[in-house]
Amino acid sequence: MKNIKFKESFNNCRASIYKPETRQFLLSRIAGSEQEKDMSVPSNCDGYGRIHHFRRNVDKWVQDPLPNDPACKALEIPYTDLLEAQVFQLASCNVHCWYCFVPDELKRGRIVNAKWLTAEQMVELYKKSDTGIRVIDLSGGNPELVPEWTLDTMKALERNELQNKVYLWTDDTLTTDYAFEHLSKDELSYMTSYKNFGKVGCFKGFDAHSFAFNGKLE
Ligand code: SF4
Fold first, then answer.
1. Which of 86, 117, 186, 202 is the most buried (most CB within 10 A)?
2. Secondary structure (3-state) at 116
3. Distance 153 CA to ligand 1 centre (A)
């Protein structure tokens, strides 16, 4: 019964941020949001992007090589402890982690703090920003609610001849199987053969209870 309830609610999250007929995705407007107050540099890409600094070494924490090492390896550039990434955020999440730094207003799938964009339009914003940043991070919210976003971004990068210049990075809450439900075999195989792409899966617990507690899914 619980599983059916979750499936319904996850499907609603997906429906709130994806228009399959126009392949538009609802992306959060970072400019003017609570989140922007925590940022070290202002939002960019007309307010729909932000620059994240991935640091290998953080005080009182383990070393974190992601995505620095796979990105540098793929792009054939020197390894670095500090990597800049151009982040875009999908405007919904199906999980409610107690430690989340993204304000609820940017995860509710509402148009008030967001805009419908195709992957092509998003890549245009990235190009226009002209930062020289070579990593695009598809974040959220939960980007895995709409695996079509990653697929379309790969295709848009190819159309713009950026597939070898940009490393595409995304994350996954490991709470849905939408990639297998909504993408065809050919699309999955296209994604697995896309060279400059990496993804991190986030384990939100070590058993059913801790998972439900951390994601407030009880
Ligand atoms: S999965 Fe990520 S975006 Fe969603 S609530 Fe947890 S930390 Fe926040």
1. 86
2. strand
3. 21
DSSP string, 78-102: ---SEEEEEEEEBSB-S---TT--S
Q: Which domain holds residue 78?
A: 2-214
> Are 120 and 159 contacting, i.e. CB atoms less than 8 angstroms apart?
yes
Q: How many domains does the chain have?
A: 1
Contact (CB, 8 A) for 215 and 96: yes
What's the chain's average pLDDT? 95
Distances (CA, A) of 128 to 47, 50, 123, 151: 13, 14, 9, 21
- Please state whether the peptide bond connecting residue 67 to the residue before it is cis, i.e. omega within 30 degrees of 0: yes
Q: Using CA atoms, how far apart are residues 191 and 205, in angstroms rounded to an integer?
A: 28
Mutational pocket test of ligand 1: of 10, 50, 92, 97, the residue with most ligand atoms within 8 Å of the beta carbon: 97
DSSP assignment of 142-205: -GGG-HHHHHHHHHHHHHTT-TTT-EEEEEE-S---HHHHHS-HHHHHHHHH-SSEEEEE----
Share of the chain above pLDDT 70, in %: 99
DSSP-derived pairing of the beta strands 135-139 and 24-28: unpaired
Output phi, psi for 55, to 5 deg: -110, 130
* Predicted pLDDT at 139: 98
